[in-house]
Design goal:
Chain lengths: 320, 269
């Protein structure tokens, strides 16, 4: 079989639960050896999409191919080339870490010796050797996720689905998980990751698909998405209320956002060299004192919020 | 990656069989590590045996055929009852798996779907065998005196295994359908209790009212109990032997595919 550029190709995916249409025609492609982040809020359809791509869920319309295999008619072939790490750690709590790995390796059709060898390798790599002979129910959240990911890598599948691999992890465990994911990418694995963390998509992914309400609402690289929405912004902080008021008057329509209490005003800068200089000159001429100034680059948060129309509040809750 | 992976090169059928063995090992380890449940499997049957024989023994022995002690009469009933109750662990285990992410994991692997259910059902057989052995030993200690010869013991083992297998597959259906482990517990309780008590497991049918008796003497548990009892007492089984076998095989033929179909349906929606 000649390998195509795309390891995952989903076209026009639709899925309904009763009258509730969860997916309304999702298209996405994962290029070989790259990472695609599926970014969206809770209930956007991320998990549903991953479950369909990984043969777990039947869908209503559209088509999905993974490594050229059809997920509906060639499910077994698809299953032998994918690894899946779901939201809830899918490990056996009563078995030890090592037993989990060996068992899953055997179910991936590895020989006994090969499964044992590979289990040891992964335990070492994922820093689980000390806990290898303990039942998984005694593991911490971070250890569970690592074991879960290790399990899905046991047969080194070329395509990995990571469904919110860092949700609910503490910051240190999250960074450790990111390192592991970067190693995977370096090894040439094609990865589809879902996340509700913009930073995660920004940090890790080659391409990002933003999904909301069962539809793809934007896609591109992190830079492309950012440039679509945001320009750089200059935030000026003034010493007192009079200075703030005069500045707002002088700058006029340039001010896109202001905060009376904080005495701050924000303007958009199209050309970093020219606009900043010009603004400062205007203010100097009027003898308005500036306490501080900051240049804000657009973040994926801005992209996400302007695309999904969600309030900042919800974003902050999600970040907790 | 450092090491070369070696994959099994076998037929699909062999691999499916191997998947079941792997899952049996898994469920077996569950039984061994679930110490609370294991203790229950040891002590519950002993408790039932001692309670029934001492509380009911005096009153019921008058209704028994001459020369048959209540303990010898009760043994078959209590073994079958324990097997029936024991099968609920299959239901709990299946339900547990479905509630956790582990079934998704199994389903994303190129493995046989049926293996998960097979694992629970077969390991249930092992656990029930332990319970039964414990009970026989305890029974012998308090005066149980079987009259079965070697062939009859083999038949007893055969019937009990078949019965446990059939009941465990029924339990697997309950496990798939139930929405929570709590639901499994009361569902199996409500199903198993009347079935075992409205039979000749603990008392002869003679004293029951007309309707209850009509039900009791014709239901499968009675056939299984009577067959095992006859073998233990060294008497001919009559029609009970083949009726018990037909019932169990019949239940298996229906319950196995039904459970697998329900399992597959539940996990792919």
């Amino acid at each position: 079989m000649t390998k195509s550029t795309y390891v995952v190709e989903a076209k026009g995916l639709t899925k309904s639960y009763g009258s509730n249409q969860v997916l309304k025609g999702v298209n996405l492609t994962l290029e070989r050896g790259t990472m695609l982040a599926l970014l969206g809020p809770n209930g956007a359809g991320k998990t549903t999409t991953v479950r369909i791509l990984s043969t777990l869920l039947a869908f209503d319309g559209g088509s999905v191919k993974v490594e050229g295999y059809d997920v509906t008619t060639q499910a077994d072939e698809v299953r032998s080339v994918i690894g899946l790490t779901g939201q809830s750690a899918a490990i056996d709590e009563l078995l030890t870490g090592r037993e989990n790995l060996v068992m899953m390796g055997r179910l991936y059709r590895l020989t006994h010796d090969s499964a044992k060898q590979r289990a040891q390798e992964l335990l070492e790599k994922f820093n689980l050797v000390d806990a290898a002979e303990r039942p998984a129910k005694t593991y911490s959240g971070g250890m569970r996720r690592r074991l879960d990911l290790a399990v899905s890598l046991i047969a080194t599948p070329p395509v990995i689905f990571l469904d919110e691999p860092t949700t609910g992890l503490d910051p240190r465990s999250r960074l450790a998980m990111w390192d592991i994911i970067r190693d995977l990418m370096a090894a040439g694995t094609s990865i589809l990751l879902t996340t509700q963390y913009l930073e995660e998509a920004d940090q890790l992914a080659d391409r990002i698909v933003v999904i909301d309400g069962g539809k793809v609402i934007a896609e591109g690289t992190a830079t492309e998405l950012k440039s679509k929405v945001g320009k750089d912004r200059l935030e000026l902080l003034f010493k007192d209320a009079p200075a703030f008021e005069r500045a707002v008057q002088v700058l006029g329509q340039k001010v896109i956002d202001s905060d009376e209490k904080e005495h701050s005003a924000t303007i958009i800068i199209k050309d970093p060299n020219l606009d900043v200089k010009e603004t400062l000159e205007v203010l100097a001429r009027e003898k308005i004192a500036i306490q501080s100034m900051t240049i804000h680059k657009p973040t994926l948060d801005d992209v996400f919020l302007s695309l999904t129309g969600k309030q900042k509040q919800t974003k902050k809750e999600e970040e907790k | 990656m450092a090491t070369e992976l070696v994959f099994e090169k076998r037929s699909k059928l062999f691999l499916a069989f191997q998947d079941s063995l792997i899952m049996i090992k898994r469920s077996g380890l569950h039984i061994l590590r679930n110490t609370d449940q294991l203790l229950g499997a040891f002590f519950q049957p002993i408790m039932f045996l001692v309670l029934f024989s001492s509380v009911f023994g005096g009153a019921i022995s008058k209704a028994l055929p001459p020369g048959v002690s209540y303990l010898n009469f009760l043994m078959a009933g209590i073994i079958v009852q324990t097997a029936a109750f024991g099968s609920t662990t299959t239901a709990v285990a299946v339900c547990n798996d479905l509630q956790k992410g582990i079934v998704d994991r199994f389903r994303s692997l190129p493995m046989s779907n049926l293996a998960v259910l097979n694992g629970h059902v077969i390991s249930d057989l092992f656990r029930n065998s332990i319970s039964t052995l414990v009970m026989l030993v305890a029974g012998l200690a308090i005066g149980f005196r079987p009259h079965a010869d070697f062939t009859q013991w083999l038949l007893i083992v055969g019937i009990l295994l078949l019965f446990t297998l059939a009941f465990s597959w029924l339990a697997a259906i309950v496990g798939v359908l139930a929405k929570s482990v709590e639901a499994v517990q009361w569902l199996t309780f409500v199903l198993v209790f009347p079935l075992t008590f409205a039979s000749t497991a603990f008392v002869p049918a003679e004293g029951m009212n007309r309707f209850l008796k009509a039900f009791a003497v014709n239901q499968p548990i009675t056939h299984v109990v009577e067959a095992v009892r006859a073998l233990i007492l060294g008497k001919p089984m009559g029609d009970h032997g083949w009726l018990a076998a037909v019932w169990c095989v019949g239940v298996l033929i229906v319950a196995m595919p039904l459970a697998s179909w329900l399992f597959r349906r539940k996990t792919s929606s």
